[in-house]
Amino acid sequence: MNRTALILVAAGKGTRAGTSVPKQYQKIGNKTLLTHTLENLKKSHNFSKIRVVVSTNDPWIDDVLNELGLHGVTTLGGATRTKSVHSGLESLKNLGIDRVFIHDAARPFVTPALISDLNKALDSAEAAAPALPIADALKTRDGQSVDRDALRRVQTPQAFHFDTLYAAFQNHAQDESFADDIAVAHAAGMKIKFTEGRDENFKVTYPEDFAKAARMMDQNYIATGSGFDVHQFDMDSTDPLWLCGIPIDCGYSLLGHSDADAGLHALTDAILGAMCFGDIGDHFPPSDQKWKGASSDKFLRFAIEELSRRNGTLQHVDVTLICEKPKIKPHREAMRARISELCALPLSRVSVKATTTEKLGFTGRGEGLAAQASATVRFDG
């Protein structure tokens, strides 16, 4: 097993936050920003060694570390971020460390998935960092356009093979200051991989960022999302009719770009809704030919995986099928079992039921069917 160390850079003054207290020691709720960051890092990975790089005469750090039960983990930083990281590396050089993660104290929203992605990237690269594409148009000060597709926003934690990074700092960063540690790796010619960044993994910098972080940290809550979908019958088709992940041989099917499984579509939208993450058409547009005929369980799995990335856990789902035909009762238990499997939920937390519109409307006329669903989700900040 790899011995992995964490270097947390916490020596900055954080003056852009607008207070006399460094931003890492400002409180969000009843905890400092640094405490939130350290707590999430400890939840995300079992680090063999931790080094918190602090400034000289720091009067706040002992209270934070004592609260977390961390002792003997500080090292003094330097005048620049590069010197501070170099100090952290020096404190670890004889401890048999295989990999090192370097993180900003002001990024409290690190997750296990973020760390896992970086660890996987290090299996085939010497350095790795999370990165995000740029959505806005970019201009120089004189109005010239910049190709945003060639650029990325790079976040921390940044991950490295320890010996390789230590050598890079020794050879390239003794007298020069770099924007981040990936820049040192680049100067040393190291192989770098970029993993998927997260919008929520932002750096708390300005006063308004503290308000945003406080809102995001209020995530120990239960949310309920709802979804609704309609599909027309294709009476000329002899393909199975797919509903809640189960094929039904009834002599007709449903019209749609994918397999038209209205039950799974409604459930997917319900989970996306609980996350406030758009709808199924945003992520799987019917204009995209690669989704033509696609099995709808792919859409549901995507929603479940995204929910996990956001520290959410699905608690209960309820699907109602609205139709005169086909008859749902003979297939209901198979539908429940399939949804239970796809959602990794106990069968006791999966409800599937059916109703009619008493011969009214398009469902009453047997022209198609509708499905509505609700999903209950628990978020753990």
What does this structure look like?
This protein is an alpha/beta fold and 381 residues long. It folds into two domains: 4-217, Alpha-Beta Complex (Spore Coat Polysaccharide Biosynthesis Protein SpsA, Chain A); 221-379, 2-Layer Sandwich (60s Ribosomal Protein L30, Chain: A), CATH 3.30.1330. It has twelve helices and 19 strands. Helix 8 packs parallel to helix 10. The longest helix is centred in the C-terminal third of the chain and has 14 residues, at 262-275. The relative contact order is 0.11. The model has no long low-confidence stretch (mean pLDDT 93).
Outline:
The protein is an alpha/beta fold and 381 residues long. It contains 12 helices and 19 strands.
Please supply descriptive tags for the structure shown above.
19 strands; 60s Ribosomal Protein L30, Chain: A; 381 residues; alpha/beta; Spore Coat Polysaccharide Biosynthesis Protein SpsA, Chain A; 12 helices; eight-stranded mixed β-sheet; elongated; 26% strand; 31% helix; five-stranded mixed β-sheet
Rg result: 26 Å
Number of domains: 2
Return the CATH architecture of the largest domain.
Answer: Alpha-Beta Complex
In terms of structural class, how would the helical and strand content be classed?
alpha/beta
Rounded average pLDDT: 93
The CATH topology of the largest domain: Spore Coat Polysaccharide Biosynthesis Protein SpsA, Chain A
* Share of helical residues: 25-40%
Number of distinct helices: 12
Q: Name the quaternary structure.
A: single chain
Q: Sum up the overall morphology in one term.
A: elongated
- The CATH class of the largest domain is identified as Alpha Beta
- The total beta strand count reads 19
Largest sheet: 8 strands, mixed
Q: Give the end-to-end Cα distance, rounded to a whole number of Å.
A: 29 Å
- Content of β-strand: 25-35%
- Low-confidence segments, given as residue ranges, are none
The fourth-level CATH homologous superfamily of the largest domain is Spore Coat Polysaccharide Biosynthesis Protein SpsA, Chain A
